[in-house]
Design a protein that fits this description.
12 strands; 14 helices; five-stranded mixed beta sheet; alpha/beta; binds pyridoxal-5'-phosphate; about 400 residues
């Protein structure tokens, strides 16, 4: 028996691969309208195109980013592929400009897929002394006339905050689109689309899921043409998120703001604490006055918080001593703070920077923390116990 109108308070999981379309006229109509709508019409065709459970989770993200459309994909990387690929139009494609301080996986995708396989003209924009020089940026884009510029609101692992608002204003002056990976700041701190950005991307694997148990991505925007292009590309490539993952994501997103605000406040307290530890040489956290982009963060995030990531470097007389302190810290905190290569989990987790980023950030004593939403006191106790033993 097919059951309709059950009084459930939430969208159920629709696992149908294909949906019933009744007759030829309805079928033709459904196919004709499909790429014009991220949500409606109600006639679903095939889950690789669009699925009601996925659409319901997308609506949740639209509320958070306050935008006209959101499209969920199977990972942050597939959201990035979709957002970028819709700007590729054969040999007429103009250069694509990427800020250098972006996720390492995105850089690898750019180098191996976009440059080597697809032969695209890729250009990079580099920060000077931990900050993006906006005069230099304007000079670069006015000469290069790229299709788009691609930035992350908060970079990884140096946590450079890009002045997305000003960058977008400059790009718009030259008719250049702006794509923002907003994973690290999340819409709770900043909504780039409200400042005129064209596409916002998230690795929903991180703060939206928030529990380290879903791999998903999303791209969002307001422009209808970009939406239609993205719907079509996602459908052709098959990047659409599964209904089961969409259901779990939507459920976990109910607590997103609670979790993320607590993570930001824990990170703020812990960064201040680490900044005073004698064995720590330097702490990178946009909430600290000594961070190269502290003032930008203060304005852009309106004092709500500064994200939940902290990078710090152990002091030492040479690289050997620094590595020793780093390794001892990792071992001492391992019961409570695990080495897990992701971020945005419920508990604080860490990554040794040199082991992951290699030559790009070769500081041997550096550790990146993704701060969780556990009790702050418990977190500081774990870190201080380790620091006291290292100080010895
Ligand atoms: N963007 C950022 C800023 C990331 O940190 C990551 C992954 O760590 C991605 C995108 C890719 O997301 P996913 O791992 O969900 O594909």
């Amino acid at each position: 028996m097919k059951r309709k109108d059950i009084n459930s308070s939430r969208m159920p999981v629709y696992r149908d691969a294909g949906f019933e379309l009744y007759d030829a006229t309805t079928t033709a109509d459904a196919f004709k309208k499909e790429t014009q709508h991220s949500r409606e019409p109600d006639l679903y065709i095939y889950s690789r195109y669009r699925n009601p459970t996925v659409v319901s989770a997308e609506e949740e993200i639209m509320k958070l980013e306050r935008c006209e459309w959101a499209l969920l994909t199977q990972s942050g990387m597939s959201a990035i592929d979709t957002a970028l690929s819709i700007f590729q139009h054969g040999k007429d494609t103009r250069p694509w400009l990427f800020f250098t301080e972006i996720y390492g996986g995105t850089i690898s995708f750019i180098e191996s897929v976009l440059k080597t396989r697809r032969g695209l003209d890729i250009q990079y924009f580099t920060p000077d002394n931990g900050n993006y020089d906006l005069n230099k940026f304007e000079h670069t884009i006015s000469g290069l006339k790229p299709e788009f510029v691609y930035i992350e609101t908060i970079s990884n692992p140096m946590l450079i905050v890009a002045d997305v608002s000003k960058i977008t204003n400059i790009a718009r002056k030259y008719g250049i689109k702006v794509i923002v990976d907003n994973t690290f700041s999340s819409p709770w701190l900043y909504k780039p689309l409200s400042d005129g950005a064209d596409i916002v991307i998230h690795s929903a694997t991180k703060y939206f899921s928030g529990h380290g148990n879903i791999t998903a991505g999303v791209l969002c925007g307001n422009d209808k043409k970009l939406m239609e292009d993205a719907i079509e590309y996602r459908k052709f490539i098959g990047h659409t998120l599964s209904p089961d993952d969409a259901y779990r994501l939507q459920t976990q997103m109910q607590s997103f703001e609670l979790r993320f605000s607590r993570q930001c406040s824990n990170a703020f307290s812990l960064a201040g604490y680490l900044n005073k530890i004698p064995v720590v040489k330097k702490v990178w956290f946009p909430g600290l006055k000594n961070h190269s982009t502290h003032l930008i963060a203060e304005i852009l995030f309106k004092n709500k918080g500064y994200g939940a990531m902290i990078t710090f470097d152990f002091d030492g007389k040479d690289p050997v001593e620094k590595r020793k302190r780093r390794d001892k810290f990792i071992q001492l905190v391992s019961e409570k703070i695990k080495l897990i290569p992701t971020l945005g989990d419920p508990h604080t987790i860490l990554m040794p920077v040199e082991a992951v980023w290699g030559a790009k950030y070769p500081e041997p004593g550096m550790i990146r923390l993704s701060v969780g939403f556990e009790e702050y006191e418990e977190l500081e106790n774990t870190v201080s116990m380790a620091m006291n033993k290292i100080l010895g």
